[in-house]
Design goal:
The protein has 202 residues and is of the alpha+beta class. It folds into two domains: 51 residues, Arc Repressor Mutant, subunit A, CATH 1.10.10; 138 residues, no CATH class. The protein is built from eight helices and eight strands. Strands 1-3-2 form a three-stranded antiparallel beta sheet, sandwiched between helices. Strand 7 and strand 8 form a beta hairpin. Helix 5 runs antiparallel to helix 6 and helix 6 packs antiparallel against helix 7. The longest helix is centred in the last third of the chain and has 28 residues. The protein is elongated, with a radius of gyration of 21 Å.
């Protein structure tokens, strides 16, 4: 059990334990005695294991996958930026993208924010064993969900500096951001030119 938990910062799932020959009843007894902590349904933590900045992210991924949940999940949006450490993003929740049709019947923790999308294989990469959306996919997600242009520009610069993307990719993403800004400005101009007024009631 310690060997299993070592791979995930002191976390393990009941499924992993069963596959290693450890019955659910054993996990329950260990939890009652304080030798294990129940982090979420189907996810346990060894309390004396030291945590690090990635521990909560691992817990979120294990939570989604526990109990036969989807395997193709990924940390995304501002959480992806925090994992890569390429911007000032410090979200108070863990953003997690799961497949559109995924059924998660477990109670979701308040610190997990779910997004639904069918991510392509090339849109996810592993970071210290964690599935994380690529910089390019993360840029698209943030523009679509919050339109934080300044944050995205900072992330592109940071990703180039840290070697996550090359110069050509950085330039491509910069052009994508520029197109987004132009589309927002054009939409704003159309509203002004049309002189929108609240319809009067007859």
């Amino acid at each position: 059990m310690l060997a299993l938990a070592e791979e995930n910062d002191g976390l393990l799932t009941s499924k992993q334990a069963r596959e290693a020959g450890i019955a659910d009843s054993v996990l329950a007894r260990l939890a009652q005695r304080g030798r294990l902590e129940r982090a979420a349904r189907g996810v346990y933590r060894i309390p004396y294991f030291p945590s690090n900045r990635l521990s909560q992210y691992r817990e979120a991924v294990l939570w989604a996958r526990a109990g036969g949940g989807p395997r193709n999940v990924a940390l995304s949006h501002a959480t992806a930026l925090a994992v890569y450490e390429i911007s000032d993003a410090s979200p108070h929740v863990v953003h997690l993208t799961v497949p559109r049709k995924a059924r998660l019947r477990r109670v979701r923790s308040k610190w997990i924010r779910l997004h639904r999308a069918d991510l392509a294989r090339g849109e996810v990469k592993l970071y210290e064993g964690l599935p994380v959306t690529t910089v390019a996919r993360t840029v698209e997600d943030i523009l679509a969900s919050s339109g934080q242009v300044a944050l995205v520009k900072q992330a592109i610069s940071g990703a180039r500096r840290e070697g996550y993307i090359d110069r050509a990719e950085a330039q491509r993403l910069a052009r994508r951001v520029a197109r987004y800004v132009r589309s927002i400005e054009a939409a704003s101009d159309r509203v002004r030119l049309n002189g929108w007024k609240r319809p009067s009631r007859a």
